[in-house]
Amino acid sequence: MKLLYNIAMLIYQSFIWLASKFNNNKATLFLSGRENVFALLEQKRLPGERYVWFHAASLGEFEQGRPIMESLKNSHPEYKILLTFFSPSGYEVRKDYQGADIICYLPMDMSWNVKRFLDIVQPDCAIFIKYEFWMNYLLELKKRQIKTYIVSAIFRESQLFFRSYGGFYRRLLKSFTHLFVQNDESVRLLHSIGFDNVTKVGDTRFDRVADIAAKSKDLPIVQAFKSDAKVLIAGSSWPNDENILLPYFNQNSSLKLIIAPHEIDEEHLQSIISQLKRPYIRYSQATIENVKEADCLIIDCFGLLSSIYRYGEIAYIGGGFGVGIHNILEAAVYGIPVIFGPNFRKFQEAVDLQQKGGAFVIDNYESFSQIMSEFLEENSALYSSACKVSNDYSQANKGATSKVVNAIFNQR
Are 341 and 241 in contact (CB under 8 A)? Predict the structure, then answer.
């Protein structure tokens, strides 16, 4: 099995190399970012210092690990932090993050890479975030008796660990000193295959979004745009989302729209603009005066969305008609209802909020229009209840970060 895995990794790397030859930017970054990673580690790794290694696949996992890194920095300054990413979409956005001492790509999971990486870094412990099960890394960490943890993890019955033929994959789980999971189902599944070193702590993103909300920026242009109107915030939208949102907005003059598309390339922005039948303005072109004339504010830059949600009455979260919804907690933390498309089952917080009545699933224009009409009714009981559920849920689920940090570092 190990031989087959290593062959598969070589084939995977070959496909990435081939994609880079066809000017695939992500593939090019994936390869070029790893070219000098060992030299960078040898240069920046300070002799005699103690390092905690955090690994995140991409940006979403980074956001889950970030509260732990920042808490660790505050409570245990004796540790240095190494942060690695697998994907360019994480590394390229957060390569200048000030909370880590070294940031780099994770070398490919080949035995020779793994041994060289660990020889240089010599981490005190390793923390993998949510969904990272790199075979060679985990087995070598176990061999070297380096304490290894996974945090904010979710396990599902469909995963190979829980199949009759999943013995090899269960062996990988034995590499973890402890598993910190999000829900009771994950605890039950792990117990069913003999793992007792598991604790339900919840999702560290609740702590992250609570901190973001407490420090959210005042945005005078957005405030001027909102004025006294009711505003729908569409965050991380894709074309399939916009095909539902924009026709509804065009036909409902009592509602303003702030749309922050997931991709802000000019082609996508022009596609949105071409569908609008009401006055709009791009954020990059807005002033406190001219924004008052617009009914739609298009966010054509990054970094504002988490603060923008505070100005909305309702949030629509994109991605549910594609590979999966984006971060709903950034909106729910402000105590507003969230709406999203049908692909949400892999996200525990979305399942929870939908069951409790703070989130609502739509699958077409008609279902979106119906729920929006109910929300916009005068003194809507459904809307008031949804706001309370979102707020209560966000507050009740804080605290995972302190549980993880206390368990790993305060009991040593």
Answer: yes
Please say if the pLDDT value at position 22 is more than 90: no
Residue 103 neighbours by CB under 8 Å, 6+ apart: 82, 83, 84, 85, 91, 94, 95, 96, 97
**84 DSSP β-pair partners:** 55, 104
- Give the span between the Cα atoms of 180 and 152, in whole angstroms: 6
Length of the chain: 412
Q: Classify residue 194 as exposed, middle or buried by CB count within 10 Å of its CB (0-12, 13-18, 19+).
A: exposed
Looking at the predicted structure, is the pLDDT value of residue 402 above 70? yes
Compare 80 and 167 and report the one with higher pLDDT: 80
Question: How far is residue 345 from each of residues 350, 367, 372, measured CA to CA in Å?
Answer: 7, 18, 22
Given this model, what pLDDT does residue 298 score? 98
Q: How many CB atoms lie within 10 A of CB 409?
A: 18
Q: Which helix (H) or strand (E) holds 377?
A: none
Mean pLDDT for 32-49 is: 94
Cβ(333)–Cβ(209) below 8 Å: yes
Q: How large a percentage of the chain has pLDDT more than 90?
A: 84
Q: What is the C-alpha separation between 219 and 223, in angstroms, rounded?
A: 6
pLDDT of residue 411: 63
DSSP state for residue 321 in the 8-state scheme? T
CA dist., res. 378 & res. 374, Å (int): 9
Give yes or no for residue 67 having a pLDDT over 90. yes
Least confident of 93-97, 124-128, 236-240: 93-97
> Exposed (0-12), middle (13-18) or buried (19+): which is 5, by Cβ within 10 Å?
middle
Q: Is 351 exposed, middle or buried (0-12, 13-18, 19+ CB in 10 A)?
A: middle
pLDDT for 412 beyond 70: no
Q: Can you list the positions of beta strands (E) in 21-124? A: 50-56, 79-85, 102-105
Instruction: For residue 346, count other CB atoms closer than 10 A to its CB.
Output: 13
Read off the tokens for 300.
């054509």
For residue 337, the SS3 value is coil
Residue 350: what residue type? A
Determine contact, residues 310/213, Cβ cutoff 8 Å: yes
